[in-house]
Amino acid sequence: MNPLFEKNELPVIDLQKLGLYKDGKNSLSADDTSALFAGRRTDLISIQNLRTDAFHIQQLDAKLSLQRHPDGSVSLNLHPIYKNAVAHELLDEREVEQLKAGKIANVTKQVDEETVKKKTLIIEYDAQTREFISYDPSRVQVPEKVNGQQLTPEDKQNYQSGNVVQLKDGTRVQHRASERNGMLSDRQALILSVLLDGGISYLLITGIRNLLANREEQKSQYTKDYEQALKEMKDSTSVKEEIKMRPVPDNENKNDDSRGYGRCSSR
Q: pTM for this one?
């Protein structure tokens, strides 16, 4: 997907204050860095010895995201774990409870703008930080294909709106703004074909979390369509980057697949 932020826009000073930029290097993982550039949140990150003029915190777990201001500048947002769910002004009590309980994945709201038009917002609940977050569905970048299967215009609209999209082989996928890789699925890995840099690129997404409403274990990604898409990706004559499948670090849930993506492109 086309990044919303460029590498040279990374707020180094903000990262330095959190101890996440040292000796000229960003200490975030490649997956978390990619999430920032894509306009998404990182996974929970443990920040040590956070100091400001007003306080000192020995250890803080939080997610990070980037924010672009009207003047074009970019700053780092810190999303800590709240003791209680942070209220959202557009939600009523019933919607709040349904989102917190995982009974529904999101809520669609229409909000008035300065113009006559109304703006659509999708609101979901991040159970890790106990925070309600919202996004504009029109800004969600949608893959052209998933595992080699072409998404219809209706599929693309449903994906942007945070609805579950079911492919012909039974694979289900859903956009999720609070996820580092931006999606949930009943498969642990997917291959996306996206329009990028003027051509079709392949993204191998791994470590995908399960759908909220899916009470069954995730299925193996190795379907016929997945295998064919993987072959096409590997056979691409314009492969620029090695496909990387990183192992899960010792401190992560061993039930999760390796997190990250590999990319290659074909024009």
A: 0.79
